[in-house]
Amino acid sequence: MAEPSTAGRAFDAEALPHLDALYRTALRLTGDPAQAEDLVQDTMLKAYRSWRQYRPGTNAKGWLLTILRNTFINDYRRRKLEPVATDLELVEPHAIYRAIEDVDPEGAFFAKIVDEKVLEAVDALPPDFREVLVLSDMEGLSYGEIAEALEIPVGTVKSRLFRARRQLQASLYAYAVETGIIPARESHNG
Amino acid sequence: MGEPIDCREAAARLQDYLKQELTPELEAEVRAHLERCRPCVGHARFEANFLLMLETRARRCGCPGTLRARITSILRTEMERG
User: Fold this and answer.
1) What tens digit of pLDDT does each residue of A12-33 get?
2) Residue of chain B whose alpha carbon sits nearest to that of A47
3) Rounded Cα–Cα distance for residues A155 and A10 (Å)
4) B82 inside 8 A of chain A by CB
5) Residues of chain A positioned with their CB less than 8 A from the CB of B80
6) CA B62 to chain centre
7) CB-based contact A69:A22 (threshold 8 Å)
8) Which residues of B touch A47 (CB under 8 A)?
9) What is the ipTM of this complex?
10) What b/e sequence results for A38-67 when a residue is b if at least 16 CB atoms lie within 10 Å of its CB, and e otherwise?
11) What's A188's DSSP letter?
12) What is the maximal distance between C-alpha atoms in chain A?
């Protein structure tokens, strides 16, 4: 096998370290390991072919995740976006914390929920919410990078994130109460 | 800096504060609120634990070795093609 060219080596050095992030994100977007593998492979080929468009010194992870997300939207997602839940407009900023501050003020219960259940709860979020949450809170892109990747205003990123996190907290809280990780609230006063 | 913000406003901005995504002015307002409001410090810790939990969970799953090998090999072929 021939040695890779200079461009090839640069691509290897910048892109290959992000395969884990690409695969994780693909898995969350598609919900299917086989599709996730195909999506990552397509993304890497596209990225290599458009490598000249990458601006050195910018965030390669963000660049790759943008290609992955666009490939997903164009080639993988069969259905149109599901409607975004609107009842969360009414969610109080304190909602989950207020419910739990007496029994588990630090939110230690989050750490007691197994990975599989956390990821299931992430996967159950509406797609618009899920993608911002994955890119921000699981893969560490900045709000600005996400806005660029999704071609939406930063304000929209913020409001989707706020609702996505609240919804995820609510579903993890419900799961924790259901399974006894958090004791059910006592009904007596004092 | 304008009027001090209340707990509701602070709560609405806590996550962005923790993600270091606020403008310096808004960040200063939240910080000033946290310095004088113990319950909101508790809430901030709760939100920080939530964000840390998500970050930790994400790191535990990675690209399967077989996929990594396949991609490397496909890229090699592509690179040789020039």
Assistant:
1) 999 999 999 999 999 999 999 9
2) B75
3) 35
4) yes
5) 1-2
6) 19
7) no
8) none
9) 0.90
10) bbbbbbbbebbeeeeebeeeebbbbbbbbb
11) S
12) 76
